[in-house]
């Protein structure tokens, strides 16, 4: 009965749209809150139309009943959300690094609206977050993300049981990588902050009459901007390398 109401070609398009739409909801740049929902919907439909002929051999036939169809769609949505979450976790490393750097540069109280996360964030965290999304598109990494979505059909076969254990292990691994990446990007700020506080402590002990607080904050802010200017490009390149490695395992060597 379901095959008569829903042809196999239409079911294939719906199945692909479920995975692509779920992923594009979270992928950096595509799923941002400032992107209109209609634009995201049209983009998901356009990607679905292009991708469906490429992955049709790996798609199952239309199920016999509506329950099996909803189970298959739910699995595809879960896979799409998982793939989008991997990219979102990696971009979150930049925000975390910016928060750490802002604390070391005495800019942690400077809050402003972050258009990427749609919430208040630190000055340096919002800067690195927006810059990270920009460099992803400038380096054509968005093509790699879309290619990973297509190649994911060879790794996560539609209609097969979801590898929940593998999902959990991969999420934990990416979260750990994201935290380590944030610490690596913020490492120059941490080292500069520790040396600055050490020198400040020595100054306070040698000259107790000096008002250390009033002297320290302007110098610390200037030092933070200096470290940012010297390490920003290297930090972004380091981020792009880690971001590429995250999706490299999903790509099929051609």
What is this structure's SSE topology?
Blueprint: H1 2-5, H2 8-24, H3 37-55, H4 66-104, E1 111-114, E2 119-122, H5 123-138, H6 141-155, H7 164-206, H8 212-248
Antiparallel strand pairs: 1-2
What does this molecule look like?
The protein is 75% helix and 3% strand. With 254 residues, the protein is mainly alpha-helical. It has a two-stranded antiparallel sheet with strand order 1-2. Helix 2 packs across helix 3 and helix 4 packs antiparallel against helix 8. The protein is elongated, with a radius of gyration of 23 Å. The two termini are 41 Å apart.
The fraction of residues in strands falls at: under 5%
Distance between the termini: 41 Å
Cα shape? elongated
Number of domains: 1
Count all strands and give the number: 2
> Radius of gyration in whole Å, from Cα?
23 Å
Series of secondary-structure elements, N-terminal to C-terminal: HHHHEEHHHH
Q: Unreliable segments (pLDDT under 50, ≥5 consecutive)?
A: none
Helix-residue proportion: over 70%
Mean pLDDT: 82
* Count of alpha and pi helical runs: 8
Helix-strand makeup class = mainly alpha
Main pleated sheet: 2 strands, antiparallel
Please give a quick description of this structure.
By secondary structure, the chain is mostly helical. The chain has one domain.
Task: Describe the structure using short key phrases.
single chain, 254 residues, mainly alpha, two-stranded antiparallel sheet, 8 helices, 2 strands, elongated
